[in-house]
Amino acid sequence: MKIYFATGNPNKIKEANIILKDLKNISVEHLKCPYPEIQGTLEEVSEFGAKYVYEKIKKPIIVEDSGFFIGALNGFPGTYSKYVQETLGNEGILKLLEDIEGENRKAYFKTVIGYCDENGVKLFKGVIEGKVAHEIRSKGYGFAYDSIFIPDGEDRTFAEMKTEEKSEISHRKRAFEEFKKFLYNKIIKTNDRGYYGIQNTSNRIH
Ligand SMILES: O=P(O)(O)OP(=O)(O)OP(=O)(O)OC[C@H]1O[C@@H](n2cnc3c(O)ncnc32)[C@H](O)[C@@H]1O
Ligand SMILES: [Mg+2]
């Protein structure tokens, strides 16, 4: 089964492939099919985008909308994350937080995957909590906000972790895990042999 992933961001494809690497029989293909990013919640953007792209290609499709939410800024940049990354950038964000210390630097990433096929659209969500670093810290991994985000339980920013490490705990990983559960059920229901397509043999039911 092929699932198309409509995104303009190749980092997302790289991470999705790492996260979904244990899926057999299912491949994720990058699709460059722009869709209107309506102004609204991540859920609204993903639902609209998934339906929009599905109507165009009539094949199983995912889109994904993510945001970076900073507690001390009442969730800003949140649904404006793309625009803020391109304008203020990470330095601008750090400046806004100059006098903010400790617990007040809390932030989280959230991802909402929208999946659409002939049965309609479904959403899958993932969140990772952490805090905003005091300075930009990167070993060249990751992208966008990764160099200022330190996940809870870590000292390093996402941009100091290899993509494989980020992808063990990230918001994207969590959203895709939910999506995987849905795929397992769907495949069990639709496949006569009841074969999951998953390497983990304990999950095989044939
Ligand atoms: O074409 P799409 O899939 O929309 O790709 P995008 O880069 O516009 O992605 P989003 O709208 O989902 O993301 C909003 C902003 O948040 C950034 N972002 C998304 N996921 C991230 C992650 O895992 N780490 C750091 N920044 C991220 C992204 O680069 C944008 O600046
Ligand atoms: Mg976008």
Describe the structure.
It comes from Methanothermococcus okinawensis (strain DSM 14208 / JCM 11175 / IH1). It catalyses: XTP + H2O = XMP + diphosphate + H(+); ITP + H2O = IMP + diphosphate + H(+); dITP + H2O = dIMP + diphosphate + H(+). Homodimer. By secondary structure, this protein is an alpha/beta fold. It has one domain (about 1-205): Maf protein. The chain has six helices and seven strands. It has helices at about 10-20, 40-55, 80-85, 90-95, 165-170, 170-190; strands spanning about 1-5, 25-30, 60-70, 75-80, 105-115, 120-130, 150. Strands 1, 2, 3, 4, 5, 6 and 7 form a seven-stranded mixed sheet that branches. A hairpin with a 2-residue loop joins β5 (about 105-115) and β6. α1 crosses α6 (about 170-190). The longest helix is centred in the last third of the chain and has 20 residues, at about 170-190. The two termini are about 20 Å apart.
Name the features.
metal ion binding, alpha/beta, globular, 206 residues, 7-stranded mixed sheet, disordered C terminus, Maf protein, binds magnesium ion, 7 strands, binds inosine 5'-triphosphate
SSE diagram, text form:
Layout: E1 2-6, H1 10-19, E2 27-31, H2 42-57, E3 61-70, E4 77-78, H3 81-87, H4 89-96, E5 106-117, E6 120-132, E7 149-151, H5 163-169, H6 171-190
Parallel strand pairs: 1-2, 1-3
Antiparallel strand pairs: 3-4, 3-5, 5-6, 6-7
